[in-house]
Structures are given as structure tokens and as C-alpha cells.
Amino acid sequence: MTNTDPRMTPITTDKTRAAGGHYSQAMQAGGMIYVSGQLGFMPGVKEPIIGTIQEQTRNCLTSLEAILHAAGSSLNRVVKTTVYVSDSDHWPEVNRVYGEIFGDHKPARAIVPCKSLHYGFDVEIEAVALA
Fold this sequence. Notes:
- With 131 residues, this protein is α+β, with helices and mostly antiparallel strands.
- Helices cover 23% and strands 29% of the residues.
């Protein structure tokens, strides 16, 4: 089945890792952009290289930003994020890098501790933003 609803537009960019499954990097609908969860893949690298929690967080947000730019949006138009972390002990460092990147902009946010993430990453971030 193919989506033929003109009110929904898939968003893709080659500035970050391609979607690895049956999903889009993001979908734009109703004036909003829904960005799929981004893992901490290093920009331009297809194979997972698990860096520090700080590097993973920065890479997640770099990918998120690239996808938003492809949709004509930006990080300062993010309305809500969901941050998945494999261990709540990582939270202080994730929050520090997140705050550095978002600066004064403070979107609504949920933090979800979970056992493990794909490829052994420790953080994944998804977002909803204004188009």
C-alpha cells in the first residue's frame, strides 16, 4: 500500500543516516514535522561506532537538525522531544549536551529510561516541530 494522501509528505536527507527499516526519517503533515527517533550514528558513517554518551547525544541532535533543515524547519521550531536513555545514570550528561545545543529554546520533553537501544546505543531522540 502506498501513501497517496497529499497532506502527508515524507522527508529525507542524505545529510544523515538513511532510514534502516520500514519508516521515514520524518513526515510532514498539518503544518507539523514528525521526526523519527535518531540514534547516535556519527555523521557520514553507516556502521555504528558507539562513542561517549555526550558524542551520541550530539550526533542524535545533529541528525535531527539535518532532517529538520531538509523539511525547511530548524531546532528552534521543535515543539516536543522524546529522549530514550538506556540508563538513567546517563541523564545528567545527556541533559547537559541537549541544553548546549537547544540553548534558550526549551521544547516540551519526555525522558524514557529503557533497557537497551538498537545497535548498542545509549540514547535516541525523536521530535515534533513546526514546519
